[in-house]
Amino acid sequence: MIDHRAVIDSSAEIHETAIVGPYSIIGANVQIEAETWIGPHVVVRGPTRIGKRNKIYQFASIGDIPQDKKYGGEDTLLEIGNENVIREYTTINRGTVQGGGVTRMGDHNWIMAYVHIAHDCIVGHHTTFANNASLAGHATIGDYATLGGYALVAQFCSVGTYGFCSVASVIHKDVPPYVLVAGHMAKPVGINHVGLRRANFSEEVIRKLRNAYKLLYRQGLRFEDSVKELKRLAEKSSEVQIFLDFLENSSRGIIR
After folding, report:
1. Which of 101, 117, 163, 233 has its CA 20 to 30 A from that of 150?
2. What is the rounded distance in angstroms from the CA atom of residue 48 to the CA atom of residue 42?
3. Is 120 annotated in the active site?
4. Is 206 helix (H, G, I), strand (E, B) or coil?
5. Residue 164: Cβ within 10 Å count
6. Between β-strands 19-20 and 158-159, what pairing exists: parallel, antiparallel or unpaired?
7. Cβ distance 107 to 82 under 8 Å?
8. Alpha-carbon distance 118 to 92, whole Å?
9. Which of 27, 46, 106, 120 is labelled catalytic?
10. Strand partners, 146
């Protein structure tokens, strides 16, 4: 299942059901699990671990060294889970020692062409990155989040679960779960109600999340007072509790 025109390092571990296309280069300390398809002209450098049933398209650069001047040649890691689609010209870098040593992507992510995922980023499950979206180092993207085309996430920033960042938005602080942001610099514009309905959230849950959003963004309350009110709402809603937990754990501060 490995094309004879591919170049494979002798230390690479490639499952017998994986496919590697012509002119791809698989470097040292790379592990590729069952049924993963590596297209033509892909470069994978290690240490990198790629799970099962991924599809990685031509001209992607996977697991190369971080674009960080502090990097000194250490054996840091890239981990990619299962059933991800990674399209043309995507670049995903390994971690740095200073950032924990690993860049990690979960399962079922849809990564479109020209996306960049920098060192030490953590990407959850079921995310969507439209063309040219980019993460700076140490960014965290929660499950089911969406980044529109050309969206940019600054270093150390987080996007919560089901967060939606519109086209060309610049994320300079944390985006709470379920919130839609847009603009340069990005501002909150409401709850991601379309995404929530598509994910089969009930109208009752969406209503509670709208109330939580209004408490935080529309009532003119101080942040601390908003949190107090949200604690009351969270007693009857696990989704509002997720929203509240994110606010209380934000290290960069939230987009307001």
Report:
1. 101
2. 14
3. yes
4. helix
5. 27
6. unpaired
7. yes
8. 6
9. 120
10. 128, 164
DSSP H or E run through 158:
strand 158-159
Token pair 């959850």: residue: 124
Burial 125-149 (b: 16+ CB within 10 A, else e): bbbbbbbbbbbbbbbbbbbbbbbbb
**For residue 17, what pLDDT band results from cuts at 50, 70 and 90?**
very high
Which residue is associated with the tokens 């049933």? 53
Which of the residues 137, 142, 160, 163 is marked catalytic? 137
| Cα 247 from chain centroid (whole Å) | 19
- Token pair 């309905």 in the structure block, residue: 197
pLDDT one-digit tens code per residue, 44-97: 999 999 999 999 999 999 999 999 999 999 999 999 999 999 999 999 999 999
Q: Is the peptide bond before 185 cis (omega within 30 degrees of 0)?
A: yes
Nearest to 177 by CA among 187, 192, 189: 192
Tell me the whole-structure pTM to 2 decimals.
0.96
Name the catalytic one among 116, 119, 125, 138. Answer: 119
